[in-house]
Design a protein that fits this description.
By secondary structure, the protein is an alpha/beta fold. 36% of the residues lie in helices and 15% in strands.
């Protein structure tokens, strides 16, 4: 591929993964990033006070550790783990915890312990066969279903497929009898940004739980920026170039152009007025970052074992929040990695962030609602807040144009659009313009810090070049 030129627009995980894949094949690669720092959703910055380093978007990265793309690159990232991946808080009971062991996790679910083992053990055991279905490029390798059949058998594969494509409401009713089991499932499903009575919201819960058992829910020392910096270092080792503060408004001249952007940005720059016109986005997010004088004073000390904490006790409470984003009280997803990473804050102090879902492009201020949820489970929390940064959908999109309307998944991931991102095509990374591809989270396998969208798009581009 000597002498061939490639341009990548956007330096998120997918843009950088695509650039590395192209550079490894011998192309001359330049990445253009509109912001003054690289990383897309992998940025870390002092959002509140000097010395307090906050993850601007993503913070916890089970897909990053599981990613075949990242594993192949052997990134210089130090992954950290909390003793438990997740704590799901209840008002009047001990928190349920997600541990690496299925049995250890089940033991925190009381009456639903046996039901959890029955549901999760086969899936967790077969994760390496299931993973390509979740993180593989599209179209899927035809060998993948056969490997799953060998691992689970026909009956087991059908049960797993049925559960993955189900609504959370249906799976919770079929599988669990107690509020602990149903609420624990619902909290994980809510990461999908889908109502819990929508397919395949249950599949997101199963994937996150299985990742917790197979690779954990790790976070990088120094913040998510460490992943971006490691990817950038790999690209530069291969001779690639990254240009920041470089907005692209006209289609670059190159043999290959890949867009790690929202579909509408690609359509604007490449003059494809009808491209992905029907693409749909999900709810937005409202996010708070705090500089804290000390750790969060959880009423239940078990919450201090987990870097991720779910705040929203019951299935019904979570379901209401996800059915009508912006509902008060909201279901809150909170991260507290500074308990295990001393680089995030000055000695003795801490950082934390939390977000809830709100209507797409909403300008509602959820600061009070989110902080009330934290105070509900950690009395005295507000007294430890030294400073806060608040960002709603409009601010999130202004910082990163891929977060259209504040949608963290880069597009709705319901059953209709899960594998038709951003258009219904056998190879969705190609666009109507020859040599122009899209590689953002708007393509399979979708949202998350894993680089697989960029890796898959770059492989398609290389095949086309040959």
């Amino acid at each position: 591929m000597a002498g061939k030129r490639a341009v990548v627009v956007g330096s998120g995980p997918n843009g950088l993964a695509a650039a590395i894949t192209l550079a490894h094949a011998g192309l001359d690669v330049v990445v253009h990033e509109a912001g003054d720092t690289i990383g897309g959703g992998m940025r870390t910055a002092e959002l509140t006070l000097p010395g307090f380093r906050h993850d601007v978007c993503s913070a916890i990265h089970p897909l990053g550790r599981s990613s075949a793309c990242f594993a192949e690159l052997d990134l210089a990232v130090e992954w950290l783990d909390s003793p438990a991946a997740l704590a799901h808080r209840f008002d009047d009971e001990e928190a349920a915890l997600l541990h690496r062991g299925v049995d250890e996790t089940a033991a925190t679910l009381g009456a639903d312990a046996a039901a959890y083992r029955k549901l999760m053990r086969p899936i967790a055991t077969a994760w390496r066969e299931i993973e390509p279905l979740v993180l593989g490029p599209f179209p899927l390798d035809p060998r993948v279903p056969w490997r799953l059949l060998r691992a689970l058998g026909m009956a087991g594969s059908l049960r797993a497929l049925h559960a993955a494509l189900a609504t959370t409401e249906g799976l919770a009713q079929r599988s669990f009898t107690s509020r602990r089991g149903r609420s624990f499932l619902a909290g994980n499903a809510a990461h999908s940004m889908l109502p819990l009575d929508t397919r395949p919201s249950a599949g997101f819960a199963l994937v996150l739980l299985t990742l917790g058992h197979s690779v954990g829910w790790p976070f990088p020392r120094g913040g998510s920026q460490a992943i971006a910096d490691a990817l950038a270092a790999k690209l530069r080792e291969l001779g690639g170039e990254i240009v920041t503060s470089s907005t692209v408004d006209d289609l670059p001249r190159a043999d290959v152009v890949l867009f790690d952007t929202a579909p509408r940005e690609l359509a604007r720059i490449a003059h494809l007025s009808d491209y992905a016109r029907g693409y749909r986005y999900g709810p937005g997010a409202f996010k708070l970052d705090w500089a804290l004088s000390g750790p969060i004073p959880w009423r239940d000390p078990r919450c201090a074992q987990a870097a991720t904490v779910h705040l929203g006790c019951t299935y019904d409470e979570i379901a209401r929040s996800e059915h009508a984003p912006g509902t008060v009280p909201p279901f809150v997803l909170l991260a507290q990695p500074s308990l295990w990473d001393e680089t995030r804050a000055p000695a003795g102090m801490h950082t934390a962030w939390a977000y809830c879902h709100v209507p797409h492009a909403s300008d509602v201020d959820m600061t009070e609602a989110i902080e009330s949820q934290v105070e509900r489970f950690a009395p005295g929390f507000r007294e430890r807040v030294l400073a806060r940064s608040a960002r709603g959908p409009r601010e999130l999109e202004a910082h990163n144009r891929n977060l259209v309307g504040g949608d963290l998944n880069g597009g709705l991931m319901d059953l209709r659009q899960l594998y038709t991102r951003p258009v219904a095509k056998l190879v969705p990374y190609r666009t109507p313009r020859k040599g122009v591809y899209i590689c953002s989270a708007a393509t399979p396998p979708g949202g998350g810090v894993h680089g697989m969208c960029g890796f898959a798009a770059a492989k398609v581009a290389l095949r086309d070049l040959r």
